[in-house]
Design goal:
Length: 187
């Protein structure tokens, strides 16, 4: 009886070990797939030029023809220092999603400026979700209607995982002043 119990325990442990290995393998494959699709490039059917599509990071924005404009706009944009001071204490628990098109003039101008503002604020820009769309506002796993994206770029601002505001296409005043207005709204 005791031997049967030991054999049963060994079989159960071996089975659990196989399940755990399969879970770890699936997790690693998922991470690998996500890494492969970051900064994906396609040829835009409207312009016949290369664009970023899907999720990307700031390093992806600094490449190719988009990168030239990104670097210049970033370098020469000077955020308003008074507004930056007011933003510092409000930015810590805020998350951002940027929906843009690397083919779009407003995206080229505004996204680099927005990143500059966040860098000046010492915000961890790796926490930003950046999604690049094609001319028809399509990307993998993106539903235009569900996300209510009408124009790019669209900067979506979240507090406690709840959307609290957007800056769409171009700011009303400046990116930093519009961001401050959104963050000053009552919760």
């Amino acid at each position: 009886m005791k031997e049967a119990f030991i054999i049963l325990c060994c079989l159960i442990l071996n089975f659990m070990k196989k399940i755990l290995i399969n879970i770890i393998l699936c997790f690693c494959m998922t991470l690998n797939l996500q890494a492969q699709t970051l900064n994906k490039k396609i040829i835009d059917t409207k312009t016949n030029k290369e664009i970023l599509i899907g999720y990307c990071n700031i390093e992806g924005l600094k490449t190719d023809s988009f990168g030239l404009v990104f670097k210049d706009e970033y370098k020469y944009y000077i955020p308003d220092s008074i507004t930056i001071t007011l933003l510092r204490s409000k930015i810590k628990k805020i998350k951002f999603e940027i929906v843009m098109g690397t083919w779009c003039g407003d995206s080229k101008e505004q996204v680099s400026r927005f990143i500059k503002i966040l860098d000046v604020l010492k915000y961890k820009t790796k926490k930003i979700n950046i999604l690049c769309l094609d001319h028809f506002f399509n990307a993998e796993n993106f539903e235009k209607g569900k996300n209510n994206i009408q124009k790019v770029p669209t900067f979506i601002i979240y507090r406690k995982n709840k959307e609290i505001g957007r800056i769409v296409e171009a700011p009303m005043n400046s990116l930093e002043k519009d961001l401050l207005d959104i963050l000053n709204k009552p919760v």
